[in-house]
């Protein structure tokens, strides 16, 4: 009997130990770490996400590079041709330019005209140049300037711009002067100033009209700054005459899936991005005092030097002063 009792006691103890062990194992199983249990899946998912992001970034960069190369191959002039054009016209300095502008004001602006045909413009330029320095003085390598003007005429005829005041063969004075500035042998500072002054020709015409009507209160020209629209048109002119670097003209489209695509921005878009900034902290801040409204000469220089416009590659040249320019 005693042996039977001992066996029963031992059996009960064994069952209790087994139950205790099973409970301990169950508790350990219940306390398992989800992160550690799925570490392999998380690692593979992370690697996959990184690969997708790298692929998306590569496709976006390839899209931007392809557009830039397309722009470079389609450009009417390359930077070396523009440099050769200016070097070939070493005698075409600021004095000659000022004489041409003065003649334009007398012959056209005084009659209320702010556009003319290209032959009329060339005839005036040639006449002034010959009067200044003789029969042999002309625009050297002028076929390069002809190239951009003819392309603009063809573009305007094809687009058939609605509401355009001039005829199909007429071009705005601002565009013609921007084209002529390709041959101007001067410092960048002088080039910026003459482009800015050319935008104000229309303002001078308005002031002259007001003065002739007897409104003495407007006799002093208050339009000393270029308007937002005038600056946007001038940036478009510089873009059309190949004076902006291709990379600065590329803007993002609204298509971001599966990857970011790009297109060529307009003069208005490039100006707005320069003044307002873009891209948040990783992008570029606005370069003018005001994001809208009239533009001063100093602000115009800042716009041309900004990363979103970059006229003549000026955005790649670091300067200590905001208004300092390179003399090339």
List the helices and strands and how they pair.
Layout: H1 2-30, H2 34-37, H3 39-74, H4 79-88, H5 94-107, E1 115-117, H6 118-133, H7 142-159, E2 170-172, H8 173-180, H9 188-199, H10 201-212, H11 228-240, E3 250-252, E4 262-264, H12 267-276, E5 277-278, E6 284-285, H13 297-305
Antiparallel strand pairs: 1-2, 3-4, 5-6
Helix pairs in contact: 5-6, 8-11, 9-13, 11-12
Morphology: elongated
Distance between the termini: 118 Å
Beta strand %: under 5%
For the sheet with most strands, the description reads: 2 strands, antiparallel
What percent of the residues sit in helical stretches (DSSP H or I)?
A: 55-70%
Order the strands across the largest sheet as they lie in space: 1-2
Mean pLDDT: 83
The number of strands is: 6
Number of helices, counting only DSSP H or I runs of 4 residues or more: 13
Helix/strand-derived class?
mainly alpha
What would you report as the Rg, rounded to the nearest angstrom?
A: 35 Å
H/E element sequence: HHHHHEHHEHHHHEEHEEH
**Low-pLDDT regions:** 216-222, 320-328
Q: Could you describe the 3D structure shown?
A:
The structure is a single chain. By secondary structure, the protein is mainly alpha-helical. Helices cover 58% and strands 5% of the residues. It has helices at residues 2-30, 34-37, 39-74, 79-88, 94-107, 118-133, 142-159, 173-180, 188-199, 201-212, 228-240, 267-276, 297-305; strands spanning 115-117, 170-172, 250-252, 262-264, 277-278, 284-285. Helix 9 packs across helix 13. The radius of gyration is 35 Å and the shape is elongated. The termini are far apart.
